[in-house]
Design brief:
Four copies of one chain form a homotetramer. With 469 residues, chain A is mainly α. Chain A contains 21 helices and six strands.
Chain lengths: 469, 469, 469, 469
């Protein structure tokens, strides 16, 4: 078996192909990891049984040791015989312990108790140990970029058309805020994941043979694993906890897609407000096209968007999995397995976006150039507002007609405004400060700078000493 | 124009066709309502301007009056001329006020300031006034059903196969918990919706002509409308607030779909654990099929599931709308309009599900009959657990072989167990209480009753005196 | 009831708001139309019964007359009493005929026989009478544009970066080909729609009381309505026929979205290769922004993309509706109703895209200007290919290094190439024609012109005298 | 690297875990296979160049040999240096040939020429060599089952309620027809896949340096690979060809999901019309549940449905990939890679469904039992139709009232009908054959048998000697 045997492009192109990324994710998202998580839950269960005096502490330790040793190879081998993955695991653990300990392995549990708890545990840990540090690093990157360009004027664009100015830092600050809030959503959803230990139909049928307060035993097991106990379960945990979590990732990914789009559009040949650092590298060995030797392409940003397209529709799988008949049907079993791949791919998107951001730099001079070249029509907004403030009853229409005439006649709006008799009386009332705005619309970017700085301060404070990955 | 002119099946079949439902939703989701909400925001803006001494209080009142009077007919007429919906509204308001007041209408605002704020306001109000009361009523219905049947034994089913017992109330309690939690999610998302008043590119460009603290003015306007101020905006509000809200509804709808599926499967001819009340009505005039006169179908539950299929994929539209280039492109404008239809259809699903629940009743005797007929193999689980507790090292396998032989030979499992020499020594150790479980597996439903009651208590407490719709 | 009462934005904003569009679609997609189609199928059924001597020709005529007269108002009124839409229709028809005729109305049919056949009939006719003429007109528009600019050079763009040139007509020809092929797909899918007349579970149970060859009667009914008979049915027609049809529309819509994106990007302030005609209109009354009086936005193209986002995810509804238990469950009933709205919205997209195309014109001079400004690096491709042809073993790498150095040093690639000793020997071998390519890379657009013309010829021939809408 | 390192559940659980399946798919869907396909296209390109006298036949052979030898390991290694996958491949091929041959590798081609052609080739071959044989085998399985039970009466079910009878073979025949038609759709889509050799922006820019009829060269290359030439291309092949293909698979999968649902519902404990063969195996070692030793679950059918939920939403990715700006952006690159995984997973679903069908058998006696127990109300349909035929003006309503009374009073419908004065005169007119239908409604299954046989004949004829996999 080698990495090029994989059928999944995620495995082949992204996960196996990047050794660091692989090393970071493997403990959580590999099939190997899944078996480890299941075994950890079985070990915790044995420990819980010992605490409830069902078995001795020694037995629990024996089981824990076996759980730590069991391998996916033997589990899969056993599954091939008996056609049941969790009973296969249980049998493999059982073979590694004494006959007396064997009977306590998995006792009172249904497979879903182990699987759902293992999933919650795995997602909680991968979020805490991989996703959040990666996101924290990304957010710090964006904060640094926003701060550095809090005063860098840039033309604002709506509908792809020049609108009114802002600063580049302000444009970046949008992403600080949006990604920051999504991080909170992800964190909240991860911390709300639940396992269960309520048995085959959720009514603690088996566990009630032991105790009259089985929910207490379940809660103890969950706490041991750092999870919250569930409200009530069928054979499986309520599907909404995982759905909320996948939604949190999917909606964060949408913000990445937007950022990636914005940044690659700023690299368009005609815009060039962002520059690929390697385009300026006199020793670059990087190839942009196999036939056009001059090409330097924003392919990393494009990759982030493309992976979003590959993964975001899969949220529907999770939503379809909300429907499971009666105490559960198994049509959510195979499909739910893809959640860990979703997480791994999301982690890759964070990683790739972070690299993409490092690879570009704003071209401040070019931003200024674009703004200067386009600023004349921009005057129309402050002109309209100032006319209105000074008493013009139809200021928007007056400004619209002037702007239209300027465009059609190819003359500066400022010039047409200055020579208009109709608006002269209102212009005369302008204060010096107001006149200055009309004279240099390139500075007409409101409180972009202040907003950017305040927002960066606020998010940096929230991040506090949060560790970046 | 009449209701049968509509192209949308939602309008034609569900909304126009049910006068009460129409009356309840019309103030929020009609195109008429949209214009009303936009006008309300314009009025609040004028009031805010007056508070900031931009215009007089009298002017603000004049504008407020005009806003209250403006009709969709005139706005659409004006839009046909100038091709811009918000400027059309502004012009219509302007025509209804004095020239001096006219210049203050919409001043400092971009269209998205009005539209996004109006959307947030509308969704907040329809949630509070329609969705939540409907959901509260639904939850109370389910709580009542769960309580009434907390002790009604029922066969549990996984994979469509008899598993181990529970109570019908416990099965219903799952939905109390799931819908209850979704209500909290919906409520949280609704309360987190945001408007904005930050102008054309979000940097308060125009508003900065007035004040050095434009965010304060924005916050004041938001508070006046009962909304939270945003963190930062482009031309538009961050799309995640609405996405979270639509997700909350979509994921709640998935719970409805599951409930509808469960209940219609319990009505299957071979199961019949739920009964359609009208099937027992000696005067029923209802037709079940145009060719099979004997049919009584669970079509209302089917409708709830079907509408879920129609609407849940639309969540992807909202997620695609997260991507809007630079300070915004308009490719999210038409698509976002469908959010109000989504809300309306969700409200219909609540309404229809509630009616469906009223229309059925559990057949307790039939539940008992199914359980009695199927209870023998159920013994396998407690048998396995008790054998293990009493020292059998391979209890699951022993019980599996007995259950298999019982199935293949067509003999009772209890009988085979009783006559097995291999397990006799362990059975001999059973306590009286344990033996009783094996003797009557129909009572083997764990703490189903207790869990159900505790959960109903908890949710009823949370609901408190919450008004039902 | 008025148009502003609608909850569906499609009804309110697009369908009711555009009288011509409404008039064109209403006969097919309104609820009124649905009732008409159902009644037409009932009439055809009566006629078929007469042909099979079940009833007299006079009875069939009586029924046909009643079918033509029945109104949605009375059908909905009846449905409110008996809770069944098709039996309601049947009763309303029955009330309009003599008692002896009444018994033949709907005889042998199940509701789905009527509904599925009506749907197939409606979709066939709306495709033939509305969609195809609209698409033919759109295709002719694109052909005209492609032809007119078959020789207009334009910079090619990949990854948003200047690549190598083509002609604007060639870029448009892509859409001629893609939309042309989608039209064929739509046409094929529409012609493959099926009705059925096989009764409650598809086995012709009732009809077998009449004849031993019921499939022949079904086929006769289908032919009478211009439809193909089905292979085999359950209670409902196989869902794949409608799925194929909706897919055909959805995938055509994707091409529109791509075209809309391309055209709006060409209107970007920095590119300006396409021009909005109204931007040059000295009398334009159109408003682009409620606060930025200078704005002229490509909002119609944006609308086409936005509606695509609103509708394309709904294809999943149709695919979910493929699953219907046993001889059918009804969870596909409400959801399938949205197919006609999908068709109506698609028709609107065709209409809107067609208008958008009329509203813009290429700015040939600007295309040339962009191309001239960017043409130097373009030389890298022909340089590489010609070096290779003339014997350079690593021509791509040589050209890449030259292009990189040109970029880093800010010098013309042509100049660097001319002064390179390493490549001089190969350059010396160039023919005059080859040298000319390097000297004017703006003419390096291959057979763009010829391909465009040949393709336009081919599609025009295929269209033949096809009527445009 | 071992199989348990994979993050993709498809790789880990299904593809790597089943050696036969892996062996069958690996030549088409592994990353190894992707490199092989790319190299094959490069070899064919060299051959085409030789045919056009660009290089010698010897050079082409040298390149072909290198293409056959190149390994993914070296390509990935090279890609790490130059950051371009196709140029990496080209360099690796180049290193394996003489300097003079090297310059002809990839000449005139852009990366997408190779990648898109390789994809078309791969999908064509995997369809022909793996998918179609698997589908043929599946269809033959279903035909055999339909034929064997063409006369086995079964209760028909709509809305989960007993409707009127059919035969089990007839129910299976639906899937023969639906899957058969989908196979035709898949085959048609596969045969319509296209490659391209039109260069960087589709205008044959580079190839025009060689010839004035570059499309002819492209067509020759395509034919050499067994592909059709495209109409026109940008940098990439038109996306609709692959979209049609993925849609064909997705819609076929929907039929599988429906079949899987039907069959697992027939295995419900209360229905039991289908039987798991292993449930009757006296030596079965298979475990159904890790806690309920008696369980035998239809988990293979559940798996087929679950994988459908995992994959069908991904069709949207393909539809989103229809939008690629201008001559292409790269946001469709990563996402398109998942198409081969989709194909592999579809192949797995075919394989798994086929195994699932082998594992079950209809319980004919139980089908008869269910039908006998439920047949009385079924009489209502033939009763209504016969009453109508014999002159009753309101036969449906009369039958409905009788059926309702029978249900409410718990009396046989036949008895109530017999004792009704109102319908007596009509019943008196019944022929003996008609009376027989009412007396034994279990035989009221129309032409189910004949339809089944004719349909099986027709599909078997279509299959002809088609090889099964």
């Amino acid at each position: 078996m080698n990495p090029f045997d994989a059928a999944s492009p995620f495995d082949a192109r992204y996960y196996f192909a990047d050794p660091d990324f692989f090393a970071r994710l493997h403990p959580y998202v590999s099939e190997f990891a899944q078996v480890r998580y299941l075994a950890r839950v079985e070990a915790a269960l044995a420990e819980t049984l010992a605490e409830n005096r069902v078995c001795s502490k020694g037995v629990a330790e024996e089981i824990a040791k076996a759980c730590a040793a069991v391998t996916p190879e033997e589990v899969y081998e056993e599954e091939r015989c008996i056609q049941h993955n969790i009973r296969a695991l249980v049998n493999c653990i059982g073979k590694r312990v004494s006959p007396d300990a064997r009977r306590f392995v998995h006792l009172f549990a249904t497979s879903a108790d182990i699987m759902d708890t293992a999933r919650a545990l795995c997602l909680t840990e991968v979020t805490r140990n991989v996703l959040m540090p990666g996101l924290v690093a990304l957010l710090r990157q964006l904060i640094a970029m926003a701060r550095a360009h809090a005063e860098t004027p840039q033309m604002g664009r709506t509908h792809g058309q020049h609108a009114v100015p802002l600063t580049f830092g302000f444009a970046v600050a949008q992403y600080v805020s949006r990604i920051g809030q999504r991080m909170e959503t992800i964190d909240r959803a991860a911390k709300n994941l639940r396992g269960k230990f309520a048995g085959a139909v959720g009514a603690y049928n088996a566990l009630s043979l032991l105790t009259s307060d089985p929910a207490k035993v379940e809660a103890a097991l969950m706490r041991k694993l750092g999870l919250q106990p569930p409200d009530i379960s069928t054979q499986v945990t309520q599907p909404e906890y995982v759905a909320d979590y996948v939604y949190a990732l999917a909606s964060c990914w949408g913000v990445f897609a937007n950022l990636a789009d914005d940044f690659r559009h700023l690299q368009r040949s005609e815009i060039r407000e962002l520059r690929d650092r390697k385009a300026a590298d006199p020793n670059a060995a990087v190839v942009g096209s196999s036939t056009m030797p001059h090409k330097v392409n924003p392919k990393d940003f494009e990759n982030v968007k493309s992976l979003w397209k590959a993964y975001v529709p899969r949220l529907l799988t999770v939503l379809m999995d909300q429907v499971s008949e009666h105490q559960r049907d198994l049509t959510n079993s195979a499909s739910m397995r893809f959640v860990t791949e979703f997480v791994a791919a999301f982690a890759y998107a964070v990683h790739r976006l972070s690299g993409s951001l490092d690879a570009v730099e704003p071209d401040v001079a070019r931003m200024r150039e674009v703004l200067e070249a386009g600023k004349d029509p921009v005057t129309a907004e402050p002109l309209y507002v100032l006319l209105a403030l000074h008493g013009h009853p139809d200021a928007h229409e007056a400004a619209r007609v002037l702007a239209r005439d300027a465009r059609v006649q190819g003359r500066p709006l400022a010039e047409l405004a200055a020579s208009s008799r109709e608006i002269a009386p209102y212009l005369a009332k302008l204060t010096a400060a107001q006149r200055k705005v009309l004279d240099d619309p390139a500075r007409y970017f409101g409180t972009a700078t202040e907003v950017t700085r305040a927002l960066c301060d606020a998010w940096e404070k929230k991040l506090g000493s949060e560790r970046a990955g």
